[in-house]
């Protein structure tokens, strides 16, 4: 019987994360008995989740803490950066057969 050790976070997604998407973080540890997992966002007092995996919806630095009756250990923090969606608006005004035509194209 021993406390959690080798606690680490892995990110299950590569590439850019856009607003509205989520990224899954997995916490792993070695302990006996198995550890309970809590998730935290740096600079916040209360936990933001529990369980082996956590889906981050916003930017920040996140870490997990593994604990059992023999002790606890926290992982290093990982940085999640969520990028805002790019919105481009094109407006075109023209005349077709004597009538004004406005064309609006919204790209998200």
TrEMBL record:
Residues 4-81 form the Ig-like domain. PROSITE patterns: IG_LIKE. InterPro entries: Ig-like_dom (IPR007110), Ig_sub (IPR003599), Ig_sub2 (IPR003598). Keywords: Membrane, Transmembrane, Transmembrane helix. The chain crosses the membrane at residues 87-107. Pfam families: Ig_2. The keyword 4Fe-4S does not apply. It comes from Cyprinus carpio (Common carp). This is Sialic acid-binding Ig-like lectin 13. It comes from the Eukaryota. The gene is LOC109094453.
């Amino acid at each position: 019987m021993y406390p959690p050790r080798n606690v680490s976070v892995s990110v299950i997604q590569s590439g850019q994360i856009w607003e509205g998407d989520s990224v899954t973080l997995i916490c792993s540890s070695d302990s006996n008995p198995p550890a309970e997992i809590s998730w935290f966002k740096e600079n916040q007092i209360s936990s933001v989740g529990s369980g082996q995996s956590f889906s981050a919806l916003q930017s920040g630095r996140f870490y997990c803490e593994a604990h059992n009756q023999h002790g606890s250990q926290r992982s290093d923090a990982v940085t999640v950066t969520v990028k805002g969606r790019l919105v481009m608006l094109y407006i075109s005004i023209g005349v077709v057969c004597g009538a004004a035509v406005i064309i609006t194209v919204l790209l998200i």
